[in-house]
Amino acid sequence: MVSSKEIRASNALINDATAPRVSVFVGGTSGIGKLTIRALVATGASVRIYIVGRKSSEERTRAFIQELHALNPRAEVIWTEGEIALLADVKRVCEAIKAKEPRVDLLFLTAGYAPFGPRVETAEGIEIAQSLEYYSRILFVLHLLPLLGQAEAPRVVSVLGGGLERASSVDVDDVDLKKPGNFSGVKAQIQYTAMNSTALEQLASDNPNVTFVHSWPGWVNTGNVDRSSNPNSWTAWIIRNLLGPIVRLFAMRDDTSAQRNLFQSTSAAFGGRGVPWTGKPGVNTLEKQENGLFLVNFRCNCTPNAKVMSVLREKAREKVWTHTLGVLGPYM
Ligand SMILES: NC(=O)c1ccc[n+]([C@@H]2O[C@H](COP(=O)([O-])OP(=O)(O)OC[C@H]3O[C@@H](n4cnc5c(N)ncnc54)[C@H](OP(=O)(O)O)[C@@H]3O)[C@@H](O)[C@H]2O)c1
């Protein structure tokens, strides 16, 4: 485990020279994204941050942005409205960012929830949580890769379940879990987690200049468990009354999560570039210390999950990637 002392020492080194000067937070309107933005702004560095979120969150996010500007007047935080579950809107938002910015240093992706409840699709025919946790995230990466390529230490962080993949976790014959009776919240969350890792590993091997992190944040009391269900269903009742209190009891403190996510977004522990790190270097999914995909848990340990990843690489990666490019093609 990387100790809290080491995390704070590393984050204390974030300044104008080492900070991600331009970052895009998709999901920064709540939860872990919001906590991480506050921690980044509190470093005092001169940073520009795009917070991408849906219209219904605009008012409270604008209040949050005012708080951030008071915390650090050198931080420029820009509200960017986008219905991020819709791929057409992801494309529109990315085009707008590309028109304004020559480079992006950090893309931080947290939108989503475990879809405990009935399957609900977006207007584009994708299960909502799959769009938020997978397709929309990968589309943001693909669109912003040219800008990430202009940064000195570019990084993509996808917060979901890095390290928790299982060997049989991708149903390659039903990647979108559309077959009758093949959808459940648990199955979906396991599948979307493994799809994140396989696709991010593909992107990491195609773009060795960019550091990719798929993290598992542990338990953070953000209300995420209450998000998805039909509030009147049994599943919702169980989650609200059983899982909710357990998460609240065992969750890490908000600031601990914020500092750990900031560390994962900036430290050279992952791939060698970023805030200097003299501790044990992290290893990627190929069990090497060089750039690649880092599966990182809430202790900030790299957990390459090597046996499972090699099975996924062999049996799922190509199918998932081909399918993904087929779904995203119209929005590229
Ligand atoms: N918190 C945990 O303990 C935990 C543990 C393991 C994994 N995770 C996963 O890690 C990720 C981040 O978790 P978190 O706790 O930060 O989540 P969160 O606080 O619930 O926030 C997730 C983000 O998703 C957005 N979102 C949710 N539903 C949406 C929809 N239908 N359309 C557009 N945006 C939507 C939210 O936007 P609004 O602000 O507009 O609602 C928010 O910005 C999630 O994928 C979560 O499943 C969390």
UniProtKB/TrEMBL annotation:
<keyword id="KW-0560">Oxidoreductase</keyword>
<protein>
    <submittedName>
        <fullName>Short chain dehydrogenase reductase family protein</fullName>
    </submittedName>
</protein>
<dbReference type="GO" id="GO:0016491">
    <property type="term" value="F:oxidoreductase activity"/>
</dbReference>
<dbReference type="InterPro" id="IPR002347">
    <property type="entry name" value="SDR_fam"/>
</dbReference>
<dbReference type="InterPro" id="IPR036291">
    <property type="entry name" value="NAD(P)-bd_dom_sf"/>
</dbReference>
<dbReference type="InterPro" id="IPR052228">
    <property type="entry name" value="Sec_Metab_Biosynth_Oxidored"/>
</dbReference>
<dbReference type="Pfam" id="PF00106">
    <property type="entry name" value="adh_short"/>
</dbReference>
